Amino acid sequence: MRPQDIIAKKRDGGELTADEIAAFIDGVCDDSWADYQVSALVMAMFIRGLSEAEGEHLVRSMLYSGEVLDFSDIDAPKADKHSTGGVGDKTSLIIAPLVASCGVAVPMISGRGLGHTGGTLDKLESIPGYNVKLSTDEFRGLIKRCGFAMSGQTADIAPADRKLYALRDATATVPYIPLIVASIMSKKLAEGIDALVLDVKTGSGAFMPKLDDSLTLAEALVRTGQNFGVRAEAVITDMSQPLGRFVGNALEVYECIRILKGEADDSWADTRELSLELSARLLVLAGVSVNVEDARGLADSKLTDGAAFEKFRENVQCQGGDPSVCDDPEKLFDPAIEKFDVLADAEGYVTAIDTLAIGNAVCEIGGGRTKADDSVDHAVGYESLSRLGDNVANGSPLGILHCRTLEKADSIAVRVKNAYTIGEVRPSGTPLIRQIVSPSTDGSD
Ligand code: URA
Question: Helices 249-260 and 307-318: crossing angle, nearest 10°?
């Protein structure tokens, strides 16, 4: 099958067969398709659209473009969580040990931060020594020993996605739901899991800010999970302000360890709440609990009695990290970091927050990357002190920038301050959990 014939068929609005899509993905992987041909077909898909069947062929071809892990020798349900990404979105570090402490095996393959959203691997690497580059054998061994492992994607997992994603990024073809679904689900299904909970963010810091788009994406992800035999549920969650108190790699690990240690603080109550909700849904999907209420009780007890914390500590040790940061999380703070207050310039209620602008500010002071091969400064970040609906006084701190030098702090602080809208009327609250998309309500079963 010649690439140009497949491209022409989609260019003219035709529906591609499973064999044509498989030929395309083979061509991506063995480099027999030139980048311009891959990009041309992706653009034709973007403009002409993909049918439900084409979307499914694409997921299948991308999934089997590499290794599909098989953990059938592990006698426990296997489950994972995926988030579409946000600002201060750190729940994986709590959910993996929490769910593992309830008897579920968690093969968590995570990514690095890109743009305004953070990545679990960067957060973990702020723990001295922590190794996120595990071979498949090491990954398997750790899941058996410790109940969960957190690692980056090896070259063998869904290799087609790595190349396709880079070309989509460079050709403005990322924001098309069937392509996003194929990209996310080919990687997640390759983990060999039985159950998957998807945290689909909505609001100003989400990759898809509009609720309708988040809902369409959530439904497509859940349907794809079902079609491939994985019990999947999506939770659409609010990203119209940073999650919890801290944004930035080491700062977020600090917040998670404090939560795992049971150290309550109102400023990170939403991080704890979302971690519990997603864990509970995962426990039901994995068959450990019969309903969400029971599952929440179980998950809460494992957070409160320290079992989830002990599991996290064990994992840090097993993955080569310094476990003393678990006992003394203040060690994660770099004493050389400068703090700079971001002050309100009006009195009133915080009515809106441009969360994307805060994520971009953290990225700009070194906490994130704009290109995949940029390095990150794990210690920098932002401490969010004022939340939506809070009453602030003129001159009171909205938050604190943690930066390496004060050189650019003034101009970045102005941008962060401008991310807050302050008005006279207290806004009605937006719930953290906006909507649940389960297979029975999305009409696919
Ligand atoms: N995240 C992914 O992994 N892939 C996409 O296409 C978009 C977001």
Answer: 140
Both tokens assigned to 20: 């044509």
Q: Name 230's Cβ contacts closer than 8 Å, sequence gap at least 6.
A: 188, 189, 193, 194, 195, 196
* Known active-site residue 82: yes
**Annotation says 168 is catalytic:** yes
223 and 261 Cβ atoms separated by less than 8 Å: no
- Mean pLDDT over 117-133 rounds to 94
Domain with CATH 3.90.1170.30 in the chain: 333-423
Q: Which of 44, 45, 52, 57 is nearest to 17 (CA)?
A: 57
CATH architecture, range 333-423: Alpha-Beta Complex (3.90)
**Which protein residue has the closest C-alpha to ligand 1 atom 1?**
184
Q: Which of 10, 116, 140, 168 is catalytic?
A: 168
Residue 174 CA, closest ligand 1 atom number = 6
**Nearest Cα residue to atom 6 of ligand 1:** 180
Which residues partner with 338 through β-bridges?
Answer: 403
pLDDT tens track for 302-354: 999 999 999 999 999 999 999 999 999 999 999 999 999 999 999 999 999 99
What is the rounded CA–CA span in Å between residue 404 and residue 336? 7
Rg (CA), the chain: 22
| Numbered ranges of CATH 3.40.1030.10 in the chain | 79-328+433-437
Strand partners, 81: 197
Cα 160 versus chain centre, distance: 20
CA distance 21 to 6: 8
pLDDT tens per residue across span 266-309:
999 999 999 999 999 999 999 999 999 999 999 999 999 999 99
Residue nearest to atom 8 of ligand 1 (CA): 180
Active site residue 302: no
Distance of alpha carbon 104 from alpha carbon 283, whole angstroms: 8
- Which of 367-406 are b and which e, b meaning 16 or more Cβ less than 10 Å from the residue's Cβ? bbbeeeeeebbbbbbbbbbbbbebebeeeeebbbbbbbee
**For residue 170, which of 62, 290, 291, 39 has the smallest C-alpha distance?**
39
